[in-house]
Amino acid sequence: MSSPFSSVDPFTDPFTLELQRIRGLIEVGQLQPAAQALNAAQKQAPTDARVPLVGMRLAQQAGNVPAAIQAARKALALAPDWHVAQIELALMLAKDKQGDEALSLAMQALANEPLDKQVMIGAINVALYAERIEQTRRWAEDGVRRFPDELGIRLFLARFLASQDEYALAREHYAHVQARLPQHDETLRGLLDCALHEKDDEQARQWADHLLALHPQDENVRSWHAIAHGQTPRTQPTEVITGIFDGYAERFDQHLVGTLQYRVPRRVAEILKAKHPDGRFNLLDLGCGTGQVAAYLGRIQGHIIGVDLSDKMIEQAAKLGLYSRFHQVNVLDALRETPADLYEAITCTDVLIYVGELEPVIPNALRILKPGGHFVFSCESAGEDEADLVLREKSNRYAHKASAV
After folding, report:
1. What is each CA distance from 252 to 28, 245, 257, 292, 392, in whole angstroms?
2. Are residues 389 and 265 in the same domain?
3. Quick check: 73 and 89 in contact, CB under 8 A?
4. Which long-range contacts (CB under 8 A, 24 or more apart) does 23-28 make?
5. What is the rounded distance in angstroms from the CA atom of residue 154 to the CA atom of residue 174?
6. Are 197 and 303 contained in the same domain?
7. Contact between 108 and 86 (Cβ < 8 Å)
8. Which of 128, 349, 396 is nearest to 253 (CA)?
9. What are phi and psi of 217, to 5 degrees?
10. Domain assignment of residue 26, given as a range
11. pLDDT tens for residues 88-119?
12. What confidence category does residue 381 fall into, taking pLDDT thresholds of 50, 70 and 90?
């Protein structure tokens, strides 16, 4: 099915060029002049479905999701069979957790334009945002069949399969991409990850050596190179930790407390309340995350200072209004750079599983504490028959032997 605008030359048509100019204003954050120009465009062409789609972009940039969805609906009403409007509205709805309608629209768009690569990519993203795992996989596999030379779809499928622990299938798709793009960084890392999980030690060492030759100063690559060669890195690279938590911040509390029945922050708060019943103490909350310790603790007669690597986590914690300030640094740097005898309490919950070695942690924590202060932390336990420090293969988290703490 052809687009209602297929006869318009995007390089010469004055109105199309004006819409492109307005989108440019939106992209650089000039929302007021963009809105004024968009109003003029609406008056000039009230039935042009492209105008409300640009309005959708404006509302998105302004953070107004309901208005963005409304604008996308208007575009679709003006051009009911236009695949672009169908996919754009579907994406907005999927992100807004309206998955059923989103998938229905994506299916319509695919039926209208089965050979349009961008529609295929859009549909895959709709399923992904709607958290429909099986549909995401089906459309990604269908995309590879329809567009075998489109490496982006194949790379997405490889990444998706790896996330589902289907490393053998993921490796096949990574290998296809790597044959076309021999030095592609994400593909090489994916092949290394697959080899490690499949316990193909020789292949893992080869991919790790290859990556290290390309990126000798990359701390993440050096960490994985050590793992591939049978060594335990003493700590996790910063990139690994921020990568885990930046995209996790908004659903972090629900996942930990609801899904995993995580109770450590509550217990830590109980300990601190028992030690300081008058609430008169200053707290350094290392790896504060979304602020669960502070939330259970409530307001105290002192300062709570939050430390976290993830700015997204800090944004969530700041909404509580319980922290005096935050520092976006890693735990080891925070401990090393904080002056002595400053806090009555330090907390560090579900953090040392990513930090690793404790040698620089505990002595610095004791240095920072005032006399009689308390350092309350949690670890994942390793067996007494294991090494002092163990990096769990499945979770990529450290476990510590109790006798070595």
Report:
1. 31, 8, 8, 10, 21
2. yes
3. yes
4. 23/54, 23/57, 26/54, 26/57, 26/58, 26/61, 27/61
5. 8
6. no
7. yes
8. 349
9. -100, 0
10. 14-143
11. 999 999 999 999 999 999 999 999 999 999 99
12. confident
